[in-house]
Amino acid sequence: MSRWLPCRRRDFIRKLIKLGFNGPYSGTRHQFLIYKEHRLSIPSNSEYSIPQLKMMLNEVKEIVGRQISLDEWSDL
Prior knowledge:
Blueprint lengths: L6 E2 H10 L3 E5 L4 E5 L2 E5 L4 E2 L1 H15 L5 H6 L1
Antiparallel strand pairs: 1-5, 2-3, 3-4
């Protein structure tokens, strides 16, 4: 059985690109990714903790319009 693990920033960006996001682009304070007309800010820390990862995946869920399961996230 899989469990949530911390995620490195570059791996997080790579997985979101596989989901259809474009970028990353430089903003004034943070880099961001674009999905259609939506913008997702990417924090600059090098690794995301499990609570931070879940919070960002909730934002991704709202943008993409569907839930990202643990198995799907692991397979990306």
